[in-house]
Design brief:
Strand order of the largest sheet: 3-2-1-4-7
Strand content: 15-25%
Distance between the termini: 13 Å
Low-confidence stretches: 309-320
Mean pLDDT: 93
Helix content: 25-40%
Family: Belongs to the ROK (NagC/XylR) family.
Order of helices and strands: EEEHEEEHEHEEEHHHHEHEHH
Protein name: ROK family protein
CATH topology of the largest domain: Nucleotidyltransferase, domain 5
Pfam families: ROK
Largest sheet: 5 strands, mixed
Structural class: alpha/beta
Shape: globular
Number of domains: 2
Radius of gyration: 20 Å
Number of strands: 12
CATH class of the largest domain: Alpha Beta
CATH architecture of the largest domain: 2-Layer Sandwich
Amino acid sequence: MHTDLVAALDIGGTKIAGALVDHQGRILARTQRPTPAQENGETVMGAVEAVLAELTASELWPRAGAVGIGSAGPVDRSAGTVSPVNVPGWRAFPLVERVRSATGGLPVELVGDGVAITAAEHWQGAARGHDNALCMVVSTGVGGGLILNGELHPGPTGNSGHIGHISVDLDGDPCPCGARGCVERIASGPNIARRALADGWRPGPDGDTTAAAVATAARAGDPVAAASFARAAQALAAGIAATATLVEVDIAVIGGGVAKAGDVLFDPLRRALRDYATLSFVQRLTVVPASTGTDAGLVGAAAAALRGGSTVDEARRQAV
């Protein structure tokens, strides 16, 4: 039978999602399980295998020719292993080998979740038509990936473009990664909320202290809440400008929960970018919200599987 589909896995600290995806990026079958993130490694793998078992039971499964995995990181694409920060039971866990064995020996492509979302945005979303792009996820953490010369650029280990751990404040707070003043330490959702609370912001009667609640307060004119988002925007602008200066991307696409703050984030971000992206060759840099939505991880994992060492477009041509 013609293998015109790929299997996709999107593995995070909250859920493990799986899908069968066609070469146009359409999801034809899907399933998911909660991630038993605090359990041992085999229990977590059991949840992955349960997702794969549902996919392999589908009548569409014989049409699947490869598996793509987008996983919380760090990942090591060259070794086929994952060590997600928020899944302590997996340290150098041989995920590629285990998935290959659970799927009857199909080829498996592993990338970090930021790289997967980059692949999705370039294939189906806001970075479509751009040969050089940075795509970011700003959520509980800050991740990212790069499109260079029209191709996904995962790097040797699958972590290239991990903008969350560029240092933008030399004397800043220590980051859990071991460095100081990282973009993530300032601009992630929990850190936006932490700064707002430390500076005197108080939640409403519902007691909600998330970044979404800070965004609501900022929108209503709370100066402390707005200042916390402005600081996050400044950190993001510094990281984006540094990346654009280094590799000449012309668009930065931002998704994840924090991007849902809309103008509360994007207005100060675009203003700050003018202060950091100052050289002539980065002045045309634009920043836009992501557009692939909650399925970005699955679509991007599928794109990575289709890519299999080539671009999505080449893979699609070969499959026809």
